[in-house]
Amino acid sequence: MVLKAAKLVKRGKVATLGKVYQQDAPAFGSRGWRMTIPGLPTGGPFGKQELVYNDEYLSTEIGQIGTQFDGPGHIGVITSKGMYFYNGRFLTDKGISAYGMGDLGVEHVAKKGYVCRGVLLDAAALRGGTLPIPVKPVKGKKDPGIVTAEDVKAMVKRQGIDPIGEGDCVFLYTGHGNIWHPSKWDTFSAAEKAERVKKFNSGEPSFGISACEYLASRKIILWGSDTWGSDAVGPGFAGENPQPFECHIKLMTKRGIWNLENMDLSQLVADKAYEFLFAWSPLKIKGGTGSPGNPVAMY
Fold first, then answer.
1. Cα end-to-end distance, the chain, whole Å
2. Going residue by residue through the chain (299 aa), what tens digit of pLDDT does each one get?
3. What is the 3-state secondary structure (H, E, C) of 244-279?
4. DSSP tag of 177
5. Domain spans of the chain?
């Protein structure tokens, strides 16, 4: 799989797909990024040249902020036997506590990481513009904010690439991520940032249930998007059904196909780089639910 994916590097270009971690960036719920550099300098001076150094102190939900990887310990469901997570694990299992997720820890995924064929699905091009946030479902009517299995097939055909297959890593561009603009964020006023954060978090266009079931049937190994959940979210956090984040359950809890959220796919879209060598590994955070990071595409 790695050798096959390496053949996709033809232009000698690199795109980093992570967004900047900073305090005023959008975050889900009460999550936040709070970094300080105490002391300035933090330590020193040492020696005749009076060396000084700086350290940062970080308070954050490190696995679930910004460009983030959802690992095995992130999403579960309550069953008659308890709180169930991927591969028969329960929150009451030995080794799982407030200090780490045991067998569900993200470090187990990080031992190998991902080197694969990356596939970009440009839904904004398919729809003719940024996808809207889904509205309340209407029976028999297609919502333009929800990407279906047929949409996925149409994008693959439109983009002239090979069908999605086993071992692929598949990423969706909706345009919604540009509300949290990858390059212009620091040029916005505090008021505009606040308005954009509110809009960004109010819902999101993304994969619908049929698309997620289709991707699972193709045996992909990773999914992601330029949105904060990669799951179509409408009013009250529902998607196509009243159940919130149903793709999370179908792909992650049931099948172990993990997720990358809040990706910056803008360079790939501009270059029409629809398939590429993709490389990413979460940090080896013992017992963590996920990981921050900066995925890389080479094409």
1. 16
2. 999 999 999 999 999 999 999 999 999 999 999 999 999 999 999 999 999 999 999 999 999 999 999 999 999 999 999 999 999 999 999 999 999 999 999 999 999 999 999 999 999 999 999 999 999 766 678 899 999 999 999 999 999 999 999 999 999 999 999 999 888 999 999 999 999 999 999 999 999 999 999 999 999 999 999 999 999 999 877 778 888 999 999 999 999 999 999 999 999 999 999 999 999 999 999 999 999 999 999 99
3. ECHHHHHHHHCCCCEEEECCCCHHHHHCCCCEEEEE
4. G
5. 2-20+66-298
Q: Which two tokens stand for residue 295?
A: 């995925």
CA-to-CA separations, 70 to 164, 230, 259, in angstroms, rounded? 22, 11, 5
Residue 60 CB neighbour total at 10 angstroms:
17
Q: Which residues contact 198 (CB under 8 A, 6 or more apart)?
A: none
Nearest one of 105, 115, 298 to 222, comparing CA atoms: 115
CB of 211 within 8 A of CB of 246?
no
The DSSP secondary-structure symbol of 88 reads G
Structure tokens given for 72: 């095995």
User: Tell me: domain 2-20+66-298, CATH 3.30.450, correct?
Assistant: no
Contact 33, 60 (CB under 8 A): yes
The answer to whether 137 touches 127, Cβ cutoff 8 Å, is no
